[in-house]
Amino acid sequence: MRETSLETGEVDLGLVLAPLAMLPGDPTVRLASGRFVRSTLTPEGPGTIAVAWDSTAASARVRTTGPGEEWLARRASALLGVADDASGFAPDADPRPLSAGTRDEGVDSASRQEDADLRHSPARRRSHVHHRPRVRGVLRR
Predict the structure, then answer these.
(1) Following CA atoms 49, 31, 17, 83 in sequence, which dihedral angle do they give, to the nearest 10 degrees?
(2) What is the C-alpha separation between 124 and 131, in angstroms, rounded?
(3) Is the full-model pTM beyond 0.70?
(4) What is the 3-state secondary structure (H, E, C) of the chain?
(5) What is the mean pLDDT of residues 41-58?
């Protein structure tokens, strides 16, 4: 077992690590308030990384275990986003949500109209109608 402390600065670890816990039934990842645990296979063997932090502090405690503990410990700062260079990143103060107008940028209006005509044509509607034979009666057990 190896335990270290990492300076995180202004990185919000909850936001950085949340995408890694996107599958609700994933047995390899656990994320709770101020705590993240992930078990994974590394080139050196299986390993587990556990990260604990307090949102008021600018550091996190990182513990790695297993045959892959050294490999995980060397990459902990990259996993936590601490190694990222955000100097050129300037998010918009008021980001505009993606809408139909922005989704089709670069597509001329004639192409959009042709697509709309095809989607709503009577021939297309008929081609997607599937007729199922109706079965009348009661299922018996």
Answers:
(1) -30
(2) 15
(3) no
(4) CEEEEEECCCCCHHHHHHHHHCCCCCCCEEEECCEEEEEEEECCEEEEEEEEECCCCCEEEEEEECCCHHHHHHCHHHHCCCCCCCCCCCCCCCCCCCCHHHHCCCCCHHHHHHHHHHHCCHHHHHHCCCCCCCCCCCCCC
(5) 94
Query: Please, are residues 35 and 61 in contact by the beta-carbon 8 Å criterion?
Result: no
CA–CA gap between residue 12 and residue 81 (Å, rounded): 9
Q: How many residues does the chain have?
A: 141
Fold of the domain spanning 2-79: TATA-Binding Protein (3.30.310)
Q: Spell out the domain ranges in the chain.
A: 2-79
64 phi, psi to nearest 5 deg = -120, 145
Q: Is 99 a residue whose pLDDT tops 70? A: no
